[in-house]
Structures are given as structure tokens and as C-alpha cells.
Amino acid sequence: MSRPEHIAPPEVFYNDTEANKYTSNSRIASIQAEMSLRALELLNLPADQSCFLLDIGCGSGLSGEVIEEEGHTWVGLDIAPSMLEIAQEREVEGDLFLHDIGQGVGFRPGVFDGAISISVLQWLCNADSSVQRPKARLNRFFSSLYSSLAKGARAVFQFYPENDDQLDLILTTATRCGFMGGLVIDYPNSKKARKYFLCLFAGQAAPGPAPQLPRGLDYEGVDGRESSVAYSHNRLKNHQRRPRGASRVPVKDRNWVLRKKEAARARGENVPKDSKHLEPSGYSTTYATKVSGSNQNALSNNDQAKLNADKVLRLKKAWDQSFAPAKSLPMTLFMMWMSGNSVQIFNLVITVMMFFQPVKALLGVQEAFKRFEAPESTESVTHTDINLVFPKVVFILMNLLQVALGLWKCSNMGLLPTTASDWLAFEVPPTPLEYSMM
Amino acid sequence: MRLLTHNMLQCHVKTCTDPALNFPLQLKDIELEQVETDRNDDLLLNLLQKVDWNALKATVVELGVVDFPQEIPENPQNDESFMQKFHEILMEVSPYDYN
User: Fold this and answer.
1) One MF term in GO for this entry (chain B) (predicted)?
2) In terms of Cα–Cα distance, which of A316, A399, A317 is closest to A360?
3) DSSP of A103-165
4) Which of A209, A135, A213 is nearest to A177 (CA)?
């Protein structure tokens, strides 16, 4: 962006057209008002008090209007006549002076409660004629301003420094003239929104700690928007460091050991057990994997004992299974007695059920005892597995007993063809020994 | 320009440092004008400490205003007539260059 102070001196640059443009453009006006408000804020004037302020480079009175709105009285200085004319047309309240601030401000000492200046200071850093020396002009300006400010008053300059040398020149000159303070930069991370405010303190009103330089605005403080990503190492550090007092987590923990042992078992190595405790009977993973390995004969006493215990348990369960049909016998008998011997539908259903259940059980004897046999993987190795023949025989007998009961019931009801009258068709009529004729 | 501002001005010529000569500035070729403004007692009391009273008196005499109080009363905020007069002179009377 071209800098207007490079184009012409301010009183020439801000001619009628430029001055008109400056005032009629609503965007410029809003930016000027915003900056004036911020400058007033930085002035840190006592609350609820009308103050007498100096507006350096008041132009068309845009900043003056903001001062009026805040309830203060002001006096304005500017070098451009066209701008001042517009200010007069707009009937601003402050008194206006056509004045070159490079020649100092002509006011009595200590009259102003504060001074603001919007977009002016950079103009002072240029020599517009051969006789002008920027440094001397700045010096004159700052020293006369310092004296005209009340003790403890502030002067806030919004300006656009061209480079670091210019900043340095302004700051050192102001400091040499007695001012304290420094630079406040609003939105320093945004190239567009960045604003420089030179915040100067003319001494101290009351003895005490030196006034604190205000903090520049940033997006974090305004509306929560982050202008840049916050960068920190903390997260990484926290991740690596365990909290104070927490026990050390070993790299080679239990899972690691188990994984290694599993891998060794897969290679067929002799690996100690994972647990010192006996595994519950019926839980077969350990010995199943062991006996299926190459070291079948290396079963320890412990394993042998467990195998035996398992066998005893299975045999016991098998006998339970074989006597299970007998348990329903009393109930069956009771129902037989209750229902009587007459041929009715209720009687018949009970009788059919009495046959149906034992017959079904008899057909599935092998199936019923399958779960008591040794697991398939061990069948080949355990030569002396439990003998299920006797339980099976008892099971069959019990079921047959039920069938017998059913038959007895049937005979009681007279459904069994046990009398001669049931077989009349096959009855051979007796051959008469002799025939008598009449 | 209000008399307030006139009272604050001094000659800013570098070599003009004699307090008897550089203040107050002389008013020449002027006409008086009355600009109505709202009275702000708070501001007036603030300005009362800053205004050079003797210079203001001299200026007022020079302009031909007669009924101006010679001294600041002890409690100016309670003195309604003084505050009104002070306001009129300081904030409303505006000399301007008739050229």
C-alpha cells in the first residue's frame, strides 16, 4: 500500500477532494471512530468526569465527535485547511486550530486532561521541505505537549509506523521529552487488524507505583476467536511422564509373559504353567493343549490327579443320568391310580405319554451318555477311561420298567389282547368227534 | 473560539518565554457571538482549576462584559448565578475574526 505521507505534505494531500472522501466514506469513518474510542479507552480518564482533551490532527472532527459522545470537551489541531473546513461545516463542538504540530502546541502548561491523535504521528517523521528536520520537529512537538498536559495525564497516538527506525525515533524522542509509557499493539497477530497505539504518560498524578502500560487487544480477549494455534509441549510431556506417586508400569507385564509362553508352547517347548492353582475340573484347556503336544507322557502328578478327579465326576454324573427315569416313577404310579381303569380320553393320553417318553429315551441312549465320555482329544491317549456300559444298562432297564408299567396299565384297562376272545379269528373251531344224524 | 480555549492558549514561538508577554493572547479584529450550549457543572468545576482567573478577568474587561464576578466564590458548585455566568463567558461567548 502506498503511504500518503510519501505522496505529498499533509496540508497538500488532504485537499478538498481527499477531505470529502475521508469524511463521506462510511468505512473510513467507522474505522476512525473505532480507533478514537480505543484511544479514549487507553487514556484511562477518571470515570464520570468531563475532561478537557486535545485532539491532535482532528481533521474533519470524526474523532472529536467520539469525544463529544463520551461527554468530554475538546480542542482540535490540524494542518489541512480543507479538513478543518469540513469540520466547521459539520458544526463540531470543539474549537479548531489550523496548526502545524511540528512547531509545538501553543497551550499553557497543565491545561489538558489528555490528548488523543489518530493517524497523525507518521506524518511528522517526514521532511516536507529542506528546512524541516523530523527529529527536531518531533522533539518540539513532544516537549510542548508534555508541558501542556496535566500531571498524570496521558497522550495516546494511533499511528502507522513505516518501519522500525521510525518507531524507534518516535519512542526515543518521546522518552527524552519526559514521557513514560510505550507502544500498545492491538491484534498483533493480524496483519489487517493490527493497530499501533503510542501510549504516553506525562508524569504521575500521585506518588505510588508507576502506571502500568495497558495490554493490547487480541482476538482471544474479544470474542473467543483464536488468531493462531496455541502451541505447547505440555501434552507430549504429560503423556510421557507418569503422575507423581503412581506405580511404575512395567513394559514386560503379565500379558507380555503370557504372550511369550504361548509362543513357546506353540513351538513345543516345555513351559511352566500359567497359574500355580489347580484348574477347576471340567476345565480342560491346559491338559488338552499339553497332551496334544509332543510331551504326552510328561503329565505331572498334578495333572494325573486332575484327570482322575474328572473321571470320577463324569462317572457320577453318568449314574445320575441312568437313574433319572426312575425319579418319575412315583408320579406315574400316582397318576395311574388316580385315573382309574376306565377307557377315557384322559386315561388314554396319560398312557400314550407313558409309552412315548421311555421309547424316545431308549432310542437315544448313546446320545444321552455322549457328554460323559472323555473329550475327543484325549480319547486316544486315555486307555482307562470310565466304563459307561453299566450306567447305560441301568438306564435302559429303568426305561423298560416304565414301559412295563404302561403295559400293566393297558392290561388293567383291558386294552391288551390277552384273552381268548381277542383271538377268535385265529380260533380253530373244534373238530367234532362224531356227528349224529336224525 | 470559546474564551475557554483562548484562556488556555499562549504564544508558542520558541523565543517567547516571558510569562508576562506570551499570555493571554490579545484579541484583535474580532466580533462576539453567543453560541448556546448545555451547561455541564462537572466540566465547569474541572475547568475552574485550570482557567487562569486573572487572565480571564482581563479578557472579559477587554471585551466589555461588565457583570462578571471578580472572585471565585468559596463554594462555586452551590452558587447558581456564578456557575451560570461562568458557563456563559467560558463556553458560550465566542469571539471570531470578522475578516
Assistant:
1) protein heterodimerization activity
2) A399
3) G---B-TT-EEEEEEES-HHHHTS--STT--HHHHHHHHHHHHHHHEEEEEEEEEEE---SHH
4) A135
Helix (H, G, I), strand (E, B) or coil at B9: strand
Best residue in A69, A73, A147 for a mutation probing chain B (most B CBs within 10 Å): A73
Domain borders along chain A are: 4-222, 301-417
Q: How far apart are CA A5 and CA A304, in angstroms?
A: 103
- B72-81 pLDDT tens trace: 888 888 888 8
Number of separate domains in chain B: 1
- The answer to whether the beta carbons of residues B94 and B34 sit under 8 Å apart is yes
Residues 6+ apart with CB under 8 A from A390: A322
pTM score, whole prediction? 0.59
Q: In 3D, which of A82, A131, A130, A80 has the Cα closest to residue A101?
A: A80
Name the residue among B9, B12, B40 with its Cβ closest to that of A144.
B12
CATH number for position B80? 2.20.25.10
The secondary structure of A375-425 as a DSSP string is PHHHHTT-TT----HHHHHHHHHHHHHHHHHHHHHHHHHT-S--SGGGGGG
ipTM of the complex: 0.90
| A88 has a chain B CB within 8 A of its CB | no
Across chain A, which has 438 residues, the per-10-residue mean pLDDT values are: 83 88 87 91 86 92 90 92 90 89 89 93 87 90 93 92 91 92 89 90 82 78 50 58 74 87 86 80 58 50 75 88 87 86 85 88 87 63 70 91 88 83 82 84
Is A211 within 8 Å of chain B by CB? Answer: no
C-alpha cell at A11: 496540508
